[in-house]
Design goal:
Elements: H1 2-8, H2 12-20, H3 23-43, E1 45-49, H4 53-59, E2 64-67, E3 85-89, H5 93-103, E4 108-111, H6 124-136, E5 140-144, H7 157-166, E6 170-177, E7 180-182, E8 190-192, E9 197-202, H8 214-239, H9 259-270, H10 275-284, E10 309-313, H11 317-333, E11 338-343, H12 346-355, E12 361-364, H13 370-380, E13 384-388, H14 394-402, E14 407-412, H15 416-424, H16 426-433, E15 438-441, H17 444-452, E16 458-460, H18 464-467, H19 475-485, E17 490-496, H20 501-514, E18 519-524, H21 530-539, E19 544-546, E20 559-561, H22 568-574, E21 577-580, H23 593-597, E22 601-604, H24 612-620, E23 625-626, H25 630-642, H26 644-660, H27 664-672
Parallel strand pairs: 1-9, 2-5, 2-6, 3-4, 3-5, 10-11, 10-13, 11-12, 13-14, 14-15, 15-16, 17-18, 17-21, 18-20, 19-20, 21-22, 22-23
Antiparallel strand pairs: 6-9, 7-8
Helix pairs in contact: 3-5, 6-7, 7-8, 9-16, 11-12, 13-14, 20-25, 24-26
GO cellular component, one term: plasma membrane
InterPro entries: DUF374, Glycos_transf_N, Glycos_transf_N_sf, Kdotransferase
Pathway: Bacterial outer membrane biogenesis; LPS core biosynthesis
Length: about 700
C-alpha cells in the first residue's frame, strides 16, 4: 500500500516545477515584479544622463536599445510613454516571467535569443527576423547584449548584426539604484531596491555600416561593449551605488590581501636569513646548481634584453615540456619577442639549455620570499608573466602583480584534493588566484575548481601536453641501452610511488614464469627512492642493477632500477608494455601522454583522478588496460607480449584518443593574443578590464 501511494504521488521537484510554470503563478509573480519596479520609481530620486533621456531615445527611434543581463529589472522605466518598444526575451521559464512583467509596461515581446557558448538552438534566427521586421515597422527593439551562459558583460555579435542589417543605431543604456541586492548568478542579477537614488543613462548612438566586414563587425562589437560598460559605470556613479558589487567574478578587480596571505608574507620575510643555508644544503644533495645559487635569491645572472619580454614559469621537466611548443610558436609568430623561462629543478635547466628557442633565457626562479621576488621582478620587468599548470607561489605572484605585470595561468591544472586544501585557506587563495588576469585551463572541471579559489577570467583551452611533441631521446644513450637489453622483452613500471613497487615486483615474478627472458625496469617517480626499490627487489631474491650507480644490465638481471632524472623517454621508447604509476595507490595517477607518443602500450591502476579526462578518453577508445593488482598487471602485460597484433591495435587506439584531445596550442595562442606585449620595451597590450585593479 505504501509503495502504491509513493508511486502515485508526484515527485516534489516535478510538482514544484509545474506550479512555477503555471499561468496563475506566472501572472502573480510578474504582477508583483511590476509593482516592485513602480515602487522603486515612486520612492526614489530620479537622475538622468542626458537630462532628457526621452528626447535622445525618441530622436533615434526606432533604435536598438542595449542593456546588460542582470541589469534589466528597472529598464522599463527608461521607456518614453509614446515610443513603441518590443523586448527580445528567451524561450524558457525565466524568459516567460520577464516577458509577462514587461507586458505590464505596455511593451511588446520578441521570442528567442542567441545560442552563445552553449550551442543550443534558442530561436535566434526567428528572433533576428522578428527584430528586423519590428525596426522596419517603426518599433524600437530592446535586447540584452551579452548572451547566457556567459561570459557576462561581453557583447555578442547578434546586436551588431541586427544594427548592420537594419541600418538602425544601437543605444547603450543602463539603469542603476544606490541600494540593491545581487544574486549569485552568472550575470550577477541585480534587484533594485526602493527609497534611494535611481539613475538612467542613455549613451551616444552607434551606427554599424551595412557593408561592414568581419573585422569591422568585431570593431563595432567591442565599441558596443565599451559603451555599455561606460554607461553602467556612469549610472552607478550617479546613483551612488558600488558597481563592483554587480560585476561577475571575471570582471572584478583582484582581492589585494587577506589574513593568511599577510601571515605567509611576514613569515617568509622573517625566514630570509636562512635562505643561503637552505640552498647550500640542497646543493650538497644535488638539488641546486652551486654556481647559480644567486638566481634563487633573485640576483639575475644575465642582463634583461631590450624590447618586450614574456616570462614563463614552470616547475620542472613535465611543465617545461608542456610549454616549450607554446614558446616556440610565440617566437615564430613574434620574432622580436624576448622569452624568459624560470624553473626550479636542475634537470629542467638542462632541458631548457637543450630545447629553448634561440635567444631565450633560462633562470632559476627565486625562493618565494618577498625581497627575492621583488628583486627578480625589478630586474626583468616582464611585460607578461605566464605561470604553467599549478605553479602557485604567492609572493612571486603578488610582487609581479603589484609591479603592474599582467599575469596568466596557462595549461592550468588543479586536483580536487589540492582545491580542497586551498579552499580551507581562502584568505590566502582568494587574493592570490584573483590576481591572475587570465586563467587558461585544461578542462571544465578544473575551470570550476579554480573559479572557486578566486580566479576571475577563465577560458578552457585544453591540455598543451596533447599538442606537445614527444620529448627528444638521446640517440647514443638509446643505442647503448638497446644494446645492453638485446632481444629481451622489456616491461616498464614508470613513475611508481611507495606501495606500488612491491606489487610490480610480484607481477614481474609471475611474468617471468611465462616470459623467462623478461627484463623489468622500475622508474620511481622520485629517483632518490632508487635504493629502497633495489632493496625490496633484492629481498625477494631478484638480481638487481641500478642506473644511477652505473650498473651494467647482465643477462641474469631481473630488475633494472632507472633512478635517474630526464631519461624516462629512453625506457618508453624500448618498452613493449608500460605500467603508469601513482594509480594503484590514491595519488591520482601520472600523465600517460609521453608513453603513448613514444609507442608503449599502457597499463594503469584505477586511481587516475588527476588525469580524469585523459583516461576517460583512452577508455572510450580502448587505448589502455585497467589493472588492480599484481595478477592484473601480469595478465595484461602477458597479453601484450604474446599478442603483438592486439598490442599494436591498442597503441593505435591510444594515439587516436590523444589526437581527439588536441588543439590546445592554437586555443591558447588565441586567448593570449590580447595580452601579448607589443614590440616596444615595456609597452604591454591594453588589458580588457572594466575597471583598473586599483579601483576603489
Amino acid at each position: 500500500m505504501q509503495r502504491l501511494m509513493t508511486s502515485a504521488s508526484p515527485k516534489p521537484e516535478k510538482f514544484l516545477r509545474r506550479v512555477q510554470q503555471s499561468d496563475l503563478f506566472m501572472d502573480r509573480i510578474s504582477g508583483l515584479a511590476a509593482g516592485h519596479v513602480r515602487m522603486v520609481l515612486a520612492t526614489s530620486k530620479v537622475i538622468r544622463d542626458p537630462v532628457d533621456t526621452d528626447a535622445r531615445l525618441l530622436s533615434h527611434h526606432p533604435s536598438i536599445v542595449a542593456m546588460w543581463h542582470g541589469q534589466f529589472l528597472c529598464m522599463p522605466l527608461i521607456k518614453p510613454k509614446t515610443m513603441p518598444v518590443s523586448n527580445m526575451v528567451a524561450k524558457h521559464a525565466d524568459g516567460e516571467m520577464i516577458g509577462r512583467t514587461l507586458l505590464h509596461f505596455d511593451m511588446g515581446l520578441i521570442r528567442g535569443a542567441g545560442a552563445g557558448e552553449s550551442g543550443k538552438d534558442r530561436g535566434g534566427a526567428g528572433a533576428l527576423r522578428a527584430a528586423l521586421k519590428a525596426l522596419k515597422g517603426g518599433t524600437t527593439v530592446a535586447m540584452t547584449t551579452d548572451i547566457p551562459p556567459g561570459p557576462a558583460r561581453v557583447a555578442g555579435l547578434g546586436i551588431v548584426t541586427i544594427a548592420r542589417m537594419s541600418g538602425r543605431p544601437i543605444l547603450p543604456t543602463a539603469v542603476a539604484t544606490g541600494r540593491f541586492l545581487t544574486l549569485p548568478t552568472w550575470s550577477r542579477m541585480t534587484i533594485n531596491l526602493p527609497f534611494t537614488r535611481l539613475a538612467m543613462v542613455v549613451g551616444d548612438p552607434i551606427h554599424v555600416p551595412r557593408d561592414a566586414d568581419e573585422a569591422e563587425m568585431e570593431h563595432y562589437r567591442q565599441l558596443v561593449e565599451d559603451a555599455m560598460n561606460a554607461a553602467t559605470v556612469r549610472a552607478y556613479e550617479l546613483a551612488g551605488g558600488n558597481v563592483i558589487r554587480t560585476l561577475p567574478d571575471e570582471k572584478r578587480p583582484p582581492r589585494k590581501s587577506g589574513f593568511l596571505l599577510s601571515v605567509y608574507r611576514g613569515a617568509t620575510w622573517a625566514a630570509r636569513p636562512a635562505a643561503m643555508t637552505i640552498l647550500k644544503r640542497r646543493a650538497a644533495r644535488g638539488k641546486e646548481v652551486p654556481e647559480r645559487l644567486g638566481e634563487r635569491l633573485g640576483i639575475a645572472s644575465a642582463p634583461r634584453p631590450e624590447g618586450a619580454l614574456a616570462w614563463f614559469h614552470a616547475a620542472s621537466v613535465g611543465e617545461t615540456n608542456s610549454v616549450l611548443a607554446l614558446m616556440d610558436e610565440l617566437k615564430r609568430r613574434n620574432p622580436t619577442l624576448n622569452l624568459l623561462l624560470t624553473t626550479i629543478t636542475a634537470t629542467s635547466a638542462k632541458i631548457a639549455k637543450e630545447r629553448l628557442p634561440e635567444g631565450a633565457i633560462h633562470q632559476f626562479v627565486p625562493l618565494d620570499n618577498p625581497a627575492f621576488c621583488k628583486r627578480f621582478v625589478e630586474h626583468w620587468h616582464p611585460d607578461l608573466g605566464l605561470f604553467v599548470e599549478s605553479e602557485i607561489w604567492p609572493n612571486l605572484i603578488v610582487e609581479a602583480s603589484d609591479a603592474g605585470v599582467p599575469l596568466a595561468l596557462v595549461n592550468g591544472r588543479m586536483s580536487q584534493r589540492s582545491t580542497q586544501r586551498w579552499r580551507r585557506l581562502s584568505s590566502l587563495s582568494q587574493p592570490v588566484f584573483s590576481r591572475f588576469d587570465l586563467v587558461l585551463t585544461q578542462n571544465r572541471r578544473i575551470a570550476k575548481r579554480l573559479k572557486s579559489l578566486g580566479a576571475r577570467k577563465i577560458v578552457v583551452t585544453g591540455n598543451l601536453k596533447y599538442d606537445a611533441p614527444p620529448p627528444p631521446v638521446d640517440a647514443r644513450a638509446l643505442d647503448d641501452l638497446r644494446g645492453a637489453i638485446g632481444e629481451r622483452p622489456m616491461f616498464l613500471a614508470a613513475s611508481t610511488h611507495p606501495g606500488e613497487d612491491e606489487i610490480v615486483l610480484r607481477a614481474a615474478e609471475m611474468l617471468r614464469a611465462a616470459v623467462p627472458s623478461l627484463l623489468t625496469v622500475i622508474a620511481p617517480r622520485h629517483p632518490e627512492r632508487g635504493g629502497d626499490v633495489a632493496a625490496l627487489a633484492e629481498a625477494r631474491g631478484d638480481t638487481v642493477a641500478r642506473r644511477s650507480a652505473g650498473d651494467a644490465i647482465a643477462d641474469t638481471t631481473h630488475i633494472y632500477v632507472a633512478d635517474t632524472i630526464g631519461e624516462l623517454g629512453l625506457f618508453y621508447t624500448l618498452a613493449e608494455a608500460a605500467f603508469i604509476g601513482g594509480s594503484l595507490v590514491e595519488h591520482g595517477g601520472q600523465n600517460p601522454i609521453e608513453a603513448i607518443k613514444l609507442g608503449a602500450a599502457i597499463l594503469s591502476g584505477p586511481h587516475t583522478f588527476n588525469f580524469t579526462e585523459t583516461y576517460e578518453t583512452l577508455g572510450r577508445f580502448e587505448g589502455f588496460r585497467l589493472v588492480h593488482d599484481a595478477d592484473g598487471i601480469a595478465a595484461a602485460a602477458r597479453q601484450i607480449f604474446e599478442h603483438a597484433e592486439a598490442a599494436a591495435h591498442m597503441k593505435r587506439n591510444a594515439a587516436a584518443a590523444i589526437a581527439t584531445l588536441g588543439g590546445a596550442l592554437e586555443k591558447t595562442l588565441e586567448a593570449l593574443a590580447p595580452w601579448l606585449p607589443a614590440s616596444a620595451p615595456g609597452e604591454a597590450a591594453p588589458q580588457p578590464e572594466l575597471l583598473p585593479h586599483d579601483a576603489p
